[in-house]
Amino acid sequence: MLAIFKKEINQFFSSITGYVAIIVFLLANGLMLFVFPDTSLLDYGYANLDPLFDLAPLIFLLLIPAITMRSFADEFKGGTMELLGTKPLTGWQIVMGKFWASALIVGIAVLPTGVYYVAIRALSATPGNIDNGGIGGAYIGLLLLGAVFTAIGTWASSLTANAVIAFLIAIFTCFLFYNGFDALSKLPIFTGGWDYYLQMAGIKFHYNSISRGVVDSRDVIYFLSVTGLMLYLTKTALQRKMWQ
């Protein structure tokens, strides 16, 4: 697994695509949080990073599929998947090596946003007067969201040899999991109790909950369960393709 992990990291940063993806993520966040007036932290009125945690999931919808789309698609396209099958590696080792490499890249993209925390802390009317616990919990929620999206993107890449198709499948599935259930719950047919359960089935409900700074075990279990499910589906899809 470690060999695949290192290979994926090296492959990602061996081309300009990897750097561009991370730079675009940080640039988009920077513009929205400090330049565009409608979302600027400087016009927010008080010192917190709520706009960051509201905007980051939408940017993740494009960033993470771009990171994961080549995970398995390029292996299928280049014919190297058969070579991996001859190595002393289990299906889980292959899947987890790919997943953790992509998850690390997502973490690297999120890490520089700590500069925004330092800036807001320094710019607050009373320096240091900021909800550290709430921001810490929100960052945990953001990383868990990144793990779920990464697992979905890895699964999408295991379905096809075309990286563009994998990218589109990942975007659609991430959007469905994040916003689809919440949108369905607002239909009149589901009012009267079912709307709440539909919201609970979606990522947005649990992300909003944990982004308030309260790390509830139920939300953590949800994120880990969805991540595990998507990785299991990835392993199943991979085995099916290798048998063919």
Descriptive key words:
single chain; 244 residues; mainly alpha; 75% helix
Q: Would you summarize the structure shown here?
A:
With 244 residues, the chain is mainly alpha-helical.
Describe the overall structure.
The protein has 244 residues and is mainly alpha-helical. The protein has one domain (2-243). Helices cover 75% and strands 0% of the residues. The protein is built from 12 helices and no strands. The protein has helices at 2-13, 16-34, 50-68, 73-78, 81-85, 91-110, 114-123, 132-157, 163-185, 194-201, 203-211, 217-243. The longest helix is centred in the last third of the chain and has 27 residues, at 217-243. It comes from Chitinophaga parva. It holds the Pfam family ABC2_membrane_2. This is Gliding motility-associated ABC transporter permease subunit GldF.
Task: Tell me the layout of helices and strands.
Blueprint lengths: L1 H12 L2 H19 L15 H19 L4 H6 L2 H5 L5 H20 L3 H10 L8 H26 L5 H23 L8 H8 L1 H9 L5 H27 L1
Based on helices, strands and strand pairing, what is the structural class? mainly alpha
Total beta strand runs = 0
Sheet with the most strands? Answer: none
| Overall helicity | over 70%
Distance between the termini: 23 Å
Radius of gyration, in Å, reads 19 Å
Beta-strand content: under 5%
Mean pLDDT: 83
Q: Segments where pLDDT lies below 50 for 5+ residues?
A: none
Shape: globular
Total number of distinct structural domains: 1
Count the DSSP helices.
Answer: 12
Q: What is the H/E order?
A: HHHHHHHHHHHH
GO molecular function: ABC-type transporter activity
Subcellular location: Cell membrane
Pfam family, one: ABC2_membrane_2
Main location: membrane
